[in-house]
């Protein structure tokens, strides 16, 4: 008995020229911009704050509102972590640097030409 399944939606998934393909825009996965906003949101001011809540009392420096995306934001995070001699991560467009480094981070961001404010206490 023949199967009554509908054909799979999506189309091209892999190309020998460029590898994996995005089913929505049909671009190579590395070039896909489907899930990314067109421009960063905000007022152009980078805000640097310190947070300890939910981290077992350990301080983390947070950098929000950086008008960069993707690899450029990750590279900035790497430079800041190296300058502070600390670890950290990039989560949802927010740079997290382990430890209390607000003054150092503000100084470095000002040197890079960003408009910076200290946020929080």
Short summary of the structure?
The chain has 2 helices and 7 strands, in the order ββββαββαβ. It is of the alpha+beta class and 121 residues long.
Structure description:
By secondary structure, the chain is of the alpha+beta class. The protein has 2 domains: 27 residues, no CATH class; 74 residues, SUI1-like domain (Translation Initiation Factor Eif1), CATH 3.30.780. It contains 2 helices and 7 strands; from the N terminus they run ββββαββαβ. A 5-stranded mixed sheet has the order 5-6-4-3-7, with helices on one face. Strands 1-2 form a two-stranded antiparallel sheet. β3 and β4 form a beta hairpin. The longest helix is centred in the middle third of the chain and has 15 residues. It is elongated, with a radius of gyration of 20 Å.
Q: Layout of helices and strands, plus pairs?
A:
Elements (H helix, E strand, L loop, with lengths): L13 E2 L3 E2 L24 E7 L8 E5 L5 H15 L3 E4 L2 E5 L3 H10 L3 E4 L3
Parallel strand pairs: 3-7
Antiparallel strand pairs: 1-2, 3-4, 4-6, 5-6
Class per helix and strand makeup:
alpha+beta
CATH architecture annotation name of the largest domain = 2-Layer Sandwich
Sheet with the most strands: spatial strand order: 5-6-4-3-7
CATH topology name of the largest domain: Translation Initiation Factor Eif1
H-E string? EEEEHEEHE
Which stretches are poorly predicted, pLDDT < 50 over at least 5 residues?
Answer: none
**Rg (CA only):** 20 Å
Outline, from the CA principal axes? elongated
In percent, how much strand structure appears in the residues? 15-25%
Q: How many beta-strand segments?
A: 7
For the record, give the distance between the C-alpha atoms at the N and C termini, rounded to a whole number: 71 Å
Oligomer: single chain
